[in-house]
Amino acid sequence: MRGIALLSALLLLSAPTQAEELFGLSMVGTPQYTVESTHLDYANENAPKGGELKQAAIGSFDTLNPYTIKGNAAKGLNLTTDRLMARVWGEPFTLYPLIAKSIEVPEDRSSITFNLNDKARFHDGSRISSEDVIFSFETLRKYGRPNMRRIYKLAKAEPLDSQTVTFTLSGDYDRETVMILAMMPILSKAYWEDKEFDQTTFTPPLGSGPYRIKEFEAGRKISYERIKDYWAKDLLTNKGHHNFDLITYDYFRDDSVALEAFKKGDLSMRREWDAGEWNNSYKFDAVDNGDVIKEEIKHGRAEKIRGFIFNTRRAPFNDMKTRQALNLLFDFDWVNDNFFYGEYKQVDSFFPNTDLGFSALKETGKHPEHKQRENLRKANALFKEAGWVVVDNKYYGHPETGEPLSFEILTDTPSMEKIALAYSRYLEKMGIKAIIRVMDSAAFRSRINDYDFDMLLYHWNSTLSPGTEQYLYWSCESAKTPSRWNYAGICDPEVDTLAKAIPTAKTREELKNLAQNLDQKLQEGQYFVPLYYNPNDYVAYWDTLKRPEFVPLYGIVLETWWMEPQDAQ
């Protein structure tokens, strides 16, 4: 009997993990919606169809294929091609059926099987099949964008039948890998197999999404028309979406020209990203008489981690106390009041505007008036402890050479330059020399890829659903590898351990605990001088546009907006 019991136990241990058939797939936790759900809570399922949405794009475009690294793709091409599953914006990271009507995923997420919807069609009426999925996978793994290539190489695809495909994972995969595979755009094999995928093109590719390209002027304008018999229009993630008959992007040489076009009524809506512009440039008659609606809409998405980033690979920023002292000398309240009308908040964690940061456990608020004087006192003490010589409370000299503390601040935009200049002027009063260098985008990228800078005025991207990117941002390995995102040169074994653990979290509470511990550890390192983020979206639009009252976690979702029938003529 003992032998039989032992054999049974061994068989159980060696058996493959049983895959569970699922409707929705979340990075952590349980999806909000079920197979019985009819529409998303931030969409108006009865929104009328019709009208034209006109928006601005800046610059130009030279290709209609957005999935390769070649060329600058036209805005809006995502509307033309469906993915296996669709992301929703009311949950941190959850996917629901689109081309795939359901999925099968084992507990360890070592594979994912897609059961395709029999109704899924390309715009020419041809059915989307397993062959198209396999072709898309292999093409994007070879020619797609770097993030696709990196993730897709971990998978092996196998068609089980014409409507079922399984991806089996190996190597350094994690819980997020199946999510990324599920967001794969599906291309038509019949259309693409005799064409060069890795080239720019002005031939509109065959799509499958809610819109198709109607017309375009190369580099100047592109319009998309709604597919009235779109195969997926009644699915959960599409009900109440894609309401405009026509969506047009007009291209402008710069944003100030686009703003003037909006004021004249040539554009339907505009999102503003600058508090100064928001407070100064939207004072015109149409706003005053109510023809243009101007709204500040609170959102809950993660914001960028903006700041003056220390390169700890080189002196003097390899010294913690010097970094801490320079951090204390930055007067955020002055910058916020003088540049941003007091509307921004200071970055207080490595997960700004979320519940994932260690700052979520602390009370935060505006600095009291005496804070800068207190910070100066603390900074003086830290400079002394670090070995700098303080003369008349404002000169910091090297203890051996007497040379003043000096460094270069590298940035790539005029808007960032004005903040750097404000900081440098205050530092100059203290005897600290900060040289501002503004570079063009190519030279700037080359410098930061090689970690060739003292201080970098830039940002890291943040997310409500942190995963594998945390290791790329903060690990010892990435600190030593060029062209990664560890700009600060962070190398701490505890940080490595926490960053590796984050993608393994299975519940939201587990993820929050890991993220807050990582955030606390990173904050202790004093790796950057924190700048700002905006907890609100600035949106202006002509009153012919309507939107749902409920705003989801990530902010406004333009796909759910509409025009009332009398305005859509």
The CATH homologous superfamily name of the largest domain equals: Periplasmic binding protein-like II
* Major sheet strand order: 1-6-7-9-8
Quote the CATH topology of the largest domain.
D-Maltodextrin-Binding Protein, domain 2
What is the quaternary state of this protein? single chain
Output the CATH class name of the largest domain.
Alpha Beta
Radius of gyration: 26 Å
The CATH architecture assignment of the largest domain turns out to be 3-Layer(aba) Sandwich
Number of strands: 26
Question: Tags for this entry?
Answer:
globular; 26 strands; 5-stranded mixed beta sheet; 5-stranded antiparallel beta sheet; Dipeptide-binding Protein, domain 3; alpha+beta; disordered N terminus; D-Maltodextrin-Binding Protein, domain 2; 569 residues
Outline of the structure:
The protein has 569 residues and is α+β, with helices and mostly antiparallel strands.
Q: How do the strands and helices of this protein lay out in sequence?
A:
Elements: H1 2-14, E1 19-22, E2 25-26, E3 52-58, E4 85-87, E5 94-97, E6 100-106, E7 111-116, H2 130-143, H3 146-152, E8 155-161, E9 164-169, H4 177-182, H5 189-192, E10 211-217, E11 221-226, E12 246-252, H6 255-263, E13 269-272, H7 275-280, H8 285-288, E14 292-298, E15 305-310, H9 320-328, H10 332-339, E16 345-346, H11 371-385, E17 389-391, E18 395-397, E19 406-411, H12 414-429, E20 433-438, H13 441-449, E21 455-460, H14 469-474, H15 476-479, H16 493-501, H17 508-524, E22 528-530, E23 532-533, E24 536-542, E25 545-546, E26 562-563
Parallel strand pairs: 3-12, 19-20, 19-21
Antiparallel strand pairs: 1-6, 2-5, 4-5, 6-7, 7-9, 8-9, 10-11, 11-12, 13-24, 14-24, 15-21, 15-22, 16-23, 17-18, 25-26
